[in-house]
Structure formats: structure tokens, C-alpha cells
Amino acid sequence: MIWPVRMVSWSWLLEMKADFIKPQDNSMHYLEFNPDVDATIFYTSCTTGRPKGTIGTHRNTVIVAFAS
């Protein structure tokens, strides 16, 4: 099965950033989220069969980043 993938250009991302990050004031903005919500899917290299995926949470992503 082929899954459709949306491709974007670097210039489009820069334009989106410019539109998204416009200073409203000098205060910091923080996002609230549940650290145990799914964030990524890790896939095996399928050396022994079909590829398999496992889900990583935001908490897992932050722990790996700090451990690096």
C-alpha cells in the first residue's frame, strides 16, 4: 500500500514561521500538553520480517534529548 505524503519546500516553511511567530508582546508563551501523549513512531529495520512500529511519548523524546 502506498501512503500519500505531503512535501513542503524550505521556503514555504520559512514563510510559515514568519507568519506564525509574530511577537504579540514580550511575555513567554508555553504550551501545555500531557507528556504521556504519543509523539513519534519508531520502526524496526524489518531484517526478520515485516517492519514493526512502536510508539514513543513526548516524555520519552525529552528524556532521550537530555541524555544525549
UniProtKB/TrEMBL annotation:
<feature type="domain" description="AMP-dependent synthetase/ligase">
    <location>
        <begin position="32"/>
        <end position="65"/>
    </location>
</feature>
<protein>
    <recommendedName>
        <fullName>AMP-dependent synthetase/ligase domain-containing protein</fullName>
    </recommendedName>
</protein>
<dbReference type="Pfam" id="PF00501">
    <property type="entry name" value="AMP-binding"/>
</dbReference>
<dbReference type="InterPro" id="IPR000873">
    <property type="entry name" value="AMP-dep_synth/lig_dom"/>
</dbReference>
